[in-house]
């Protein structure tokens, strides 16, 4: 934190300081959140925020691109390398814009797209009706099998045969199991659709080889950069060589103006960090922690959608506990445990007060927590559930959480060394 900010704007300085304290003094279980390294933070807060760079390396609309061209090429090369993709566009401002750009590269407004329904774990931008993706395209939505909580690929194939979509979207925002991208690829081929895969949540697991990659089976792969990939907030598109020009045009000038160069610079750093053995270990530990947490929750009698998890997240079906998701999420927040309430597949309750809670382990794993702490967190969650209306107990749990947090400080100072690439204190 610079003293310039402290002196010039004490209010905002103080608010940032409070948010730092809040982040370090609570257990972050929101599966889309993480903590970035100091190196990524530095790149993100650099002078690159001052530069306009509309266009692409070697073909810009403003001068002064001597350095930005090198940064963008570096980010592209690193993305292509770790995702083993022909081409990478590193300009999307976010995952949502990246998705829209992917669709508009391959389809026109009015065409049919087919994605996972929001209440079944899909993202808004997969064609849900309140999103522009559900307004400018004809949207067909598939769900998960209500009995298993998993995809029924035969059903998805049937729906695709019937509706002949222009684009089939694979990927999810709340699906705790492996996704068979090769089957989505097969179905797309069979019905003459393009396959867009959205790995916003799992891209870190994909890079580490823990989740199968969609890159060989998809025309375009979309991802955020800030979830398990552990970079700054942003989006990215990977594609086959044949689609590279369409993708570029769709992002700029199709949807965006100048790219956020400071973000792209930080993305480049995060991609280097993800290309290390430590990152592979990190990703493995995310899944181990999710397994440990889910198994302990099952022991406490919780129901998990699909019965458990293969990845970084799980969805608790709270109906047998008789507590709505929102009420539990708010009680947990008072005990310094951050989660989000979430619909479960075929939720009988409305979306603003759903029956589920979504939790995940990317952020606690960045703090260095292991299976033992993950099981401890399950214990805290169960204790809150059993004492949902007892503020004294909730406060006590909050104190225990603070103690745990102090043993696993937010690694705002972790750096990945160039040579031996150890996670080290600064
Ligand atoms: C988070 C997410 C997005 C959107 O990313 P933003 O950066 O918030 O716009 C898109 N798709 C999926 C599957 C996501 O989980």
Secondary-structure blueprint of this entry?
Blueprint: H1 3-8, H2 10-24, E1 27-28, H3 38-44, E2 55-56, E3 59-60, H4 66-83, E4 87-89, H5 95-106, E5 112-116, H6 132-135, E6 138-142, H7 153-163, E7 167-170, H8 181-191, E8 194-198, H9 203-207, E9 220-224, E10 235-239, H10 244-255, H11 261-274, H12 277-299, E11 303-304, E12 313-317, H13 325-334, E13 337-338, E14 340-342, E15 356-360, H14 362-366, H15 371-386, H16 391-407, E16 415-416, E17 423-424
Parallel strand pairs: 1-13, 5-6, 5-7, 7-8, 8-9
Antiparallel strand pairs: 2-3, 4-10, 9-10, 11-12, 12-15, 14-15, 16-17
Helix pairs in contact: 3-11, 4-11, 5-10, 7-8, 12-15, 15-16
Bound molecules: pyridoxal-5'-phosphate.
Based on helices, strands and strand pairing, what is the structural class? alpha/beta
Task: Tell me which ligands are bound.
Answer: pyridoxal-5'-phosphate
CATH top level assignment of the largest domain: Alpha Beta
Mean pLDDT: 95
| CATH architecture label name of the largest domain | 3-Layer(aba) Sandwich
Q: Give the terminus-to-terminus CA distance.
A: 15 Å
Q: How much β-strand is present in the residues?
A: 5-15%
Shape: globular
Strand segment tally: 17
- How many separate structural domains? 2
Instruction: Show unreliable segments.
Output: 415-426
Q: What does the radius of gyration come to? A: 22 Å
Helix content: 40-55%
- Arrangement of strands in the largest sheet: 4-10-9-8-7-5-6
Kindly describe this structure.
With 426 residues, the chain is α/β, with parallel strands linked by helices. The protein has two domains: 42-274, Type I PLP-dependent aspartate aminotransferase-like (Major domain) (Aspartate Aminotransferase, domain 2, 3-Layer(aba) Sandwich), CATH 3.40.640.10; 284-407, Aspartate Aminotransferase, domain 1 (Alpha-Beta Complex), CATH 3.90.1150. It has helices spanning 3-8, 10-24, 38-44, 66-83, 95-106, 132-135, 153-163, 181-191, 203-207, 244-255, 261-274, 277-299, 325-334, 362-366, 371-386, 391-407, and strands at residues 27-28, 55-56, 59-60, 87-89, 112-116, 138-142, 167-170, 194-198, 220-224, 235-239, 303-304, 313-317, 337-338, 340-342, 356-360, 415-416, 423-424. Strands 4-10-9-8-7-5-6 form a seven-stranded mixed sheet, sandwiched between helices. It has a four-stranded antiparallel sheet with strand order 11-12-15-14, covered by helices on one side. α5 crosses α10 and α15 (371-386) runs antiparallel to α16 (391-407). It is globular. Bound molecules: pyridoxal-5'-phosphate. Residues 32, 94-96, 99, 123, 125, 171-173, 198, 200-201, 224, 235 line the site of pyridoxal-5'-phosphate. Pyridoxal-5'-phosphate binds next to α5.
């Amino acid at each position: 934190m610079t003293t310039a900010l402290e002196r010039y704007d004490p209010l905002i300085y103080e608010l940032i300081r409070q948010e730092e304290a809040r982040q370090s003094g609570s257990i972050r279980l929101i599966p889309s959140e993480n903590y970035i390294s100091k190196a990524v933070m530095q790149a993100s807060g650099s002078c690159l925020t001052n530069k306009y760079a509309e266009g692409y390396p070697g073909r810009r609309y403003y001068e002064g691109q001597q350095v930005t061209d090198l940064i963008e090429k570096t980010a592209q090369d690193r993305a292509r390398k770790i995702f083993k993709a022909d081409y990478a566009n590193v300009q999307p401002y976010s995952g949502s814009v990246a998705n829209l750009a992917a669709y508009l590269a391959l389809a026109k407004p009015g065409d049919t797209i087919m994605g996972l329904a929001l209440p079944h774990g899909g993202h808004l931008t997969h064609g849900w009706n309140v999103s522009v993706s559900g307004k400018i395209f004809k949207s067909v939505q598939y769900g998960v099998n209500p009995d298993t909580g998993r995809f029924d690929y035969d059903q998805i194939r049937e729906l695709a045969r019937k509706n002949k979509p222009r684009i089939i979207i694979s990927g999810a925002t709340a699906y705790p199991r492996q996704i068979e991208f090769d089957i989505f690829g097969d179905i797309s081929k069979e019905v003459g659709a393009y396959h867009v895969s959205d790995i916003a949540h799992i891209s870190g697991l994909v890079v580490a080889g823990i989740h199968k990659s969609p890159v060989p089976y998809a025309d375009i792969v979309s991802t955020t950069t800030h979830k398990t990939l552990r970079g700054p907030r942003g989006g990215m598109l990977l594609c086959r060589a044949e689609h590279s020009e369409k993708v570029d045009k769709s992002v700029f000038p199709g949807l965006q103006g100048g790219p956020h160069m400071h973000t792209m610079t930080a993305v480049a750093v995060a991609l280097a960090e993800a290309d290390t053995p430590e990152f592979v270990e990190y990703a493995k530990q995310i899944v181990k922690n999710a397994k440990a947490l889910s198994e302990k929750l099952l022991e406490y009698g919780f129901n998990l959608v699909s019965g458990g998890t293969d990845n970084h997240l799980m969805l608790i079906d709270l109906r047998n506990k008789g507590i709505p998701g929102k009420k539990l999420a708010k009680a947990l927040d008072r005990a310094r445990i951050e989660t989000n309430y979430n619909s479960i597949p075929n939720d009988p309750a409305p979306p603003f007060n759903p029956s589920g809670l979504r939790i995940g382990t990317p952020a606690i794993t960045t703090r260095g927590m292991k299976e033992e702490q993950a099981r401890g967190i399950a214990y805290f969650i169960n204790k809150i559930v059993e004492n949902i209306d007892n503020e004294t107990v909730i406060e006590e749990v909050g104190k225990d959480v603070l103690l745990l947090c102090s043993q696993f400080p937010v690694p705002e100072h972790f750096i990945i060394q160039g040579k031996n690439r150890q996670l080290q204190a600064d």
